[in-house]
C-alpha cells in the first residue's frame, strides 16, 4: 500500500478484516494461541496512518500565525520559538500491556495505537488555540470525529498536555500537543518509568508504587505542579509576571534538568 496524503488516507478503510484483528488480539491478550499475521498487518497499517497524520500536521503548522521553527534534534526549550513533530506506533509489548490493562476492550477501539506528537514553545492559550486548529484541519481532511482532551488541569499522574482523539474511516489515532515544559516533564517521567517500572504511569488508576520509586515520583509530581504554576502565571492577568516570563520558565526548566541528572545517575551501576 502506497502512502497517501492525510486527506486521502483518513477517508479510506483499512485493508484487513476488523473482526479477524479483534479476534486474534483477544486471544493474544488472554495468553491463548493466536495468529500474529492480522496483528502485524494492523500495526503496519497504523504506521502508514501515523505518517499520513504527520503530513496533515505539517500542513496545519505551516498555516499557523505564530513564528515557530522546526528543531531537528527533537528537543524544545522555553523561549526558543522551536517545535518538534514526530510520529510513532505502539510497540507490540506496550500494546499487549495496554490491552490487558483495559480488560475486554477490542484492539480496534484502542485510540492511540497510531499517534503523532507536537511539542512546541507555547503559552497555554496558544496551546489551546492550536488544538482547535488541528481539530478543524483534521475534520476538513476527512476525520469523522475529533475530541479534544485537556489534561492540564486534571493531569494523569502529573502528566499535562492536550490530546486530540481522532476517528476516521481509517481507524482511531491520537495527536498530542505539549508545551516545552510539559514535554520535558513527560520525557522525564517516561525515563523514570523505564527505570522503576511502568506502573508509575498509572498511579491515577490505582496502580501500586514500584519499590524504590516513591522519592523520585514525589519529586516529579512536585515538578509537575511547578510547571502548572509557571505556565498559569504566564497565561494569566499577572502584569508583574509579564516582565520576566523568560526567566521563570528557564528556572523551571533547570529544575527539570536537575531531576534528569538524578535519573541519569541512578541508571549508572554502583561501583564495586
- Number of separate strands: 6
Q: Note the gap between the termini.
A: 54 Å
Mean pLDDT: 89
Radius of gyration: 20 Å
Second-tier CATH architecture of the largest domain: 2-Layer Sandwich
Beta-strand content bin: 5-15%
* Biggest sheet architecture: 6 strands, mixed
Description of the molecule:
InterPro entries: NT_sf, RelA_SpoT. This is GTP pyrophosphokinase. Residues 87-200 form the RelA/SpoT domain. This protein is an alpha/beta fold. The protein folds into two domains: 6-180, Beta Polymerase, domain 2 (2-Layer Sandwich), CATH 3.30.460; 182-267, no CATH class. The chain has helices spanning 6-10, 18-29, 37-63, 92-101, 124-141, 180-196, 214-235, 245-267; strands at 69-70, 82-89, 114-120, 145-150, 162-168, 171-179. The chain has a six-stranded mixed beta sheet. A hairpin with a 2-residue loop joins strand 5 (162-168) and strand 6 (171-179). Helix 6 packs antiparallel against helix 7 (214-235) and helix 6 (180-196) packs parallel to helix 8. The radius of gyration is 20 Å and the shape is globular.
